[in-house]
Amino acid sequence: MTKPITGFSKLTKAEKIDWIANEYTKHPEATKKILSDYWNTDAQLQKLHDEFIENTISNFYLPLGIAPNFLINGKLLSIPMVIEESSVVAAASKAAKFWLERGGFKTTIIGTEKIGQVHFMYSGDLPKLQGFFKTVHSKLINEASSITKNMEKRGGGITKIELRDKTDKLKNYYQLHCTFETMDAMGANFINSCLEQFATTFKKEAQNYALFSDKEKNIEVVMSILSNYTPNCLVKAEVSCPIEDLNLHNKVSPKEFAQKMVRAIAIAKSEPHRAVTHNKGIMNGVDAVVLATGNDFRAIEAGVHAYASKDGSYSSLTHATLENGVFKFWIEIPLALGTIGGLTNLHPLVKLAFEILQKPSAKELMQIVAVAGLAQNFGAVSSLVTTGIQEGHMKMHLLNILNQLGATEKEKEAIINHFKNNTVSHSAVLEAYENLKK
Ligand code: MEV
């Protein structure tokens, strides 16, 4: 039985590896070899990666792929995507090519508002709290000026501080609900620093507010933190074309295809089980670009799914109409992204991703990511309503199966050839491989 360890973080990397290999793996030497196989041979580069997080023992690779031919507002881009799932990059590339020949993607920024909150408890008279908030409002902003100075120079800063009464949800619970413009930064550190300063000022001033009773002076700040729900940091991406141009599939007419697409979206709008999978397909595209550009995919995921439930039931993030002979397909999605700060200036591959994307601003990145999500959804749903997803997916997955079997390059070539005209399944690949071996 393994014992708890104290001081793990103080051990050297080699000592950490020794400990984990000996305590938790059957073959410590093999463990050490795997871990070191994934180190970068450039010691400086490895050190950079080691220092991104704590207790690093190795690197965990994900493939970086490219989906070319994205025409976005008239600009042709190749999109870097980081993802482990086969088919995703191929589907994005196929959708990009399809829409390239039909006018490309059009995008609009609907808003860029970020949100943070100071959550506090106050037991007393509401009008008095409102009076106090009015007197302290300018002080909240002034005392945060050393934090906001640089952001203001770039055109951003605090946009609003509101007092919100939340006592219908929880006894004595109030908020300072604050909004910010963070320009090209995702803004988490900026927002959290502002909020912590607001909390300090608010508490201190409450102690000196003559109209408060002793009990009222004791405002308890529970926490100060940004919100990853950013419904007003919103972008729209859309494609449209005359129905007859939807000649995607030789067995389904353009009109039938358009109708099937609209119906599939209507199902995802009305049924949460389908909506979750539908949106998962969107996030295949979104997360892949978010990761490639060093942004926080957990924050994006949390905010996007909350947005998908904003009308009271979990629903599709994409929409489709078929009106006056025109098929329209669009997404509206909240994306709080940054192109400066965080990993963006540190990770060499993230820097390269930005270069490939022609150094976008945060607003431009929001548009690119929304397009990647829309393209992915178009690819997935158009397969689902025509051939089904497995045909394309298994073809892409074939190489993974062959690698698992340890096939040589020659064997892979022969089997890939065989499956050009045969249906791929795990057992069919196994059988073909065994036949080849005979
Ligand atoms: C698989 O990663 C994503 C899909 O399930 C999305 C969808 O069903 O729309 C194919």
Task: Tell the overall outline.
Answer: globular
The portion of residues assigned to helices is 40-55%
Which ranges are low-confidence, i.e. pLDDT below 50, for 5 or more consecutive residues?
A: none
Largest sheet descriptor: 4 strands, antiparallel
The number of domains: 4
How far the N terminus sits from the C terminus, by CA atoms, comes to: 46 Å
Helix/strand structural class: alpha+beta
CATH topology of the largest domain: 3-hydroxy-3-methylglutaryl-coenzyme A Reductase, Chain A, domain 2
H-E string: HHHEEHEEHHEEHHEEHHHEEHHHHH
Q: What is the radius of gyration computed over CA atoms, rounded to a whole number of angstroms?
A: 27 Å
The CATH architecture assignment of the largest domain turns out to be: Alpha-Beta Complex
Q: Please identify the top-level CATH class of the largest domain.
A: Alpha Beta
Give the overall pLDDT as a whole number. Answer: 96
Can you say what the CATH homologous superfamily of the largest domain is? 3-hydroxy-3-methylglutaryl-coenzyme A Reductase, Chain A, domain 2
Q: Number of helical runs?
A: 16
Tell me the fraction of residues in β-strands, as a range: 15-25%
The side-by-side strand order for the widest beta sheet comes to 3-8-10-9
Question: Ligands in the structure?
Answer: (R)-mevalonate
Oligomer: single chain
